[in-house]
Amino acid sequence: MGRSLGEFVKNKRAWLILIAVFGLSGLLAVFGFNRNAPAEHFTAKVERGEINDVVEATGTINAVITVQVGSQVSGTIAKLNADFNSRVHRGDVVALIDPALFKGALLQAAADLENANANLLATKANLEKAEAAVVQAKADYDRAVNLTRDGVMSHQQFDQAKMNYDSTKASEKAAAASITQAQAQASQKKAAVAVAQTNLDYTVIRSPIDGTVVARNVDVGQTVAASLQAPTIFTIAQDLKKMWVYAKTDESDVGNIKVGKPVTFKVDAFPKETFHGTVNQVRMNPTTVQSVVTYDTIIEFENRDLKLFPGMTAYATIPVASVQSVLKIPNTALRYKPPMSAEEILAIYKERGIGDGGSNPSEKSMATSAQLTPPTQSTPRAPKSDSVVVWKLHPDKSMEPVKLALGITDHAFTEVTAVLKGDLKEGDDVIIRSVVAKPQAFSAIRR
To answer: Which fold has domain 40-51+327-446?
Structure first.
């Protein structure tokens, strides 16, 4: 009985050990299978076609010439002859300021001028009187000289005659100076009349150009004050049939934009229509917002049917370069990095003759970035380098790195100018993304 119990205990232990060994072997097999599971690759075709490299920019539509019509004088708006969207011509009266005060100022200035002219006449009469006195005093003096020489007149009487003559000459000079002063006062009053007349004329506000009123800033009865600056009454756009788009372009793009290039743009008001224009100017005045530098690219276009209004937002597409019937590759393939270690990638590069096995800094950085930078689908542009390595997928699911020389890009596809290492042709599959299954057993253990 004791022997049977001992054998039973030994057999039970053996079975438990056997079950544990088989369980551990199965777990290791499952874990190993999942760890070495092949990656699932997503691919895209290499195509042949055209590529248009463009600059995308957002801007505002404006009239070529916009004039703000203001008031040179302060006063109350008595009349408005124009309103929003009114067509006006050069010289048309668009507004009138109450002229009562300015008419009064003109009358007062005119009266002051008449007074100054009367004073001028009086001083001229005084000059004539002084001149007659000088003639009389000189005659008396000449007689005194002769009489004194003959001993008839005393020296005291002679001195008196000479003093009278000198005094009348001084009076004549004073009268002449008074005329100059009166003439200056008359000129001053005449200028005051001109100023008063000009201020009165400024109460009539005229359009300086032919155009369309796009803004009216005052109403009848409103008082405008022109003490510091001229208040704006109207804003007039000269010709809405020819307009400009002020497009904000990044500093990295302005070097590629050329004057005269055709441009297409869209607006929110007509989302299904495409409008056309040409690059008129790239202005050198920079605008910096949060360390981002932009420049105004002026796009000129015809607006014959007056569909587009000033202030609308335009989404412009400015072509930079274009090629036809070239081999092109998706930009997602240019950004793809295989799920391998840097050492494995460098070994493959060396085997395929790409670079020198890692001593080339650019090739080494591409391999290292496979570990540091995960693939992304949101990068807007292709790499700026002249060459790049893409990975071609063969029908047997093997991967081959191919080194390419790149040309222009439309931000979806990039031109292949040359195949530097490997083989790539139209219709080949290039990898754009890889997905590696997570180890299921390891996940189960963690749970």
So the answer is: 2.40.420
